[in-house]
Amino acid sequence: MQRHRLDLIVAALVALATSTGGLCASKPAYPYTFTLLGSLPGSKLSMAFGVNSSAHVVGLADSRDGQRAFYWVAGMGMLDFGPGRAEAISEDDWVVGEGPSGAFVWCPGMASELDLNTVKLDANSLTAADLGWELMTAWAINGTHQVVGMAKHYGVYNHGYLLTLDADPTTGRPAGTGTLVDLVYEASLQIENVVYAFGMAINGGGQVAGSMRSDTLGGFLYADGLFDRFPVTGLVIRDLNDRGEMVSESSYWNGQSTDANGNPVWVSPFPGSPGGLRINNQSPATVVTRSSYVWKANATGTGATHLSTLVDTSGWQLFNGGGVDVSDAGHIVGDCNKPPGYPGQYAYLLTPK
Questions:
Q1: CB 279 within 8 A of CB 239
Q2: Residue 141: closest CA among 158, 156, 117, 161
Q3: How far apart are CA 159 and CA 352, in angstroms?
């Protein structure tokens, strides 16, 4: 009787092990770890827009005093360094964004942001504001502290700019001086009927990519004073890496492949409309979208994967929120929430294992 009962117990355990994949079945080996960045005191909103290879994150968060720019570091949490929003961060922690007075730059150790409109641009100490500029936003910064963004010039919108900032040799912080290039003026010297030219991204070599409207709307690449235009109507270049690989609103170009007419061959690996892309310098490059897809760049445009399948988020849902970025070390930032009925939208960081 006892032996029969033991046989039944063993049979039940075998059946349970078979149905569950083992009594001690391990969790899936996810390639990323998930970190919720939280928000500022009293806030239920944060959005991440930039991350560097040290996993330092920047973005915006609500507060009792309105929208604030934040800088996040593991072990320190979220630092509020001024009103506005932080858009991008360099490898050496220079942060650019948009504040109440327009575009700014900030880095750790500075008491407050430096308004880019006060940067001295020539030997006579004339500033951008003195020369008729209103630098409104700063969208990207590279490792040599070149910044691209949008501005008004003598009250006229639609001017993209390229600003090279000088670093103080003693502190390594912004020195308050630099040089400015008007992308619309430069484009008008080479292309007819230019209405606007916005630089959306800049790589380590100083190549600027973005969107231009003249007779048609399309993407461009600017380097060493010269513009290259892309023949795809409506194309907006969102990002490029140091090898010249580019991503548009929904597609990727490896910087080399062309068709019989010499036009770039773009591939579209992402389901639906991702609404914004970022690419890093890994080989192969990692590409992420605001609709939470990640992809290792390849010639056929296959293999895009939703981030929710690659990380244990403990119930938090990654979604098409305000921002996304990927560092050269593979860190990914974006936004998430936790339904049903859980208030708030928060920035997250994914760290590759």
A1: yes
A2: 161
A3: 38
Query: CA gyration radius for the chain?
Result: 24
Does residue 228 sit in helix, strand or coil?
strand
Q: Are 147 and 114 in contact (CB under 8 A)?
A: no
Contacts 24+ apart (CB under 8 A), 313-318: 313/34, 313/348, 314/34, 316/34, 316/36, 316/346, 316/348, 318/292, 318/348
Divide the 353 residues of the chain into consecutive groups of 10 and give the mean pLDDT of each group: 47 46 59 94 91 98 90 95 95 97 96 95 92 97 98 92 97 96 95 94 97 91 94 86 93 93 90 84 95 91 92 87 87 88 87 96
What local confidence, expressed as pLDDT, does residue 174 receive? Answer: 97
Residue 139 burial (CB count, 10 A): 24
Domain boundaries, the chain: 31-352
The CA-based angle 70-71-75, given to 5 degrees, is 125
As a whole number of Å, the end-to-end CA separation of the chain is 52
DSSP SS3 for 11: helix
SS3 state of residue 320? coil
- Which residue type occupies 313? T
Cα–Cα dist 99/86, whole Å: 8
Please, which residues bridge with residue 229 across strands? 220
Domain 31-352: CATH class, spelled out? mainly beta
Residues in the chain: 353
Give the pLDDT confidence score for residue 300 in this predicted structure.
Answer: 87
Structure tokens at 104: 């700014």
- CA atoms of 246 and 254, how far apart (whole Å): 7
- Chain-centre distance of CA 152, in angstroms? 24
Identify residue 152 by its one-letter amino acid code.
Answer: K
Question: Could you tell me the maximum CA-CA distance found in the chain, to the nearest angstrom?
Answer: 102
Closest CA to 239 of 177, 189, 290: 290
Residue 261: how many other CB atoms lie within 10 Å: 6
H/E segment holding residue 324? none
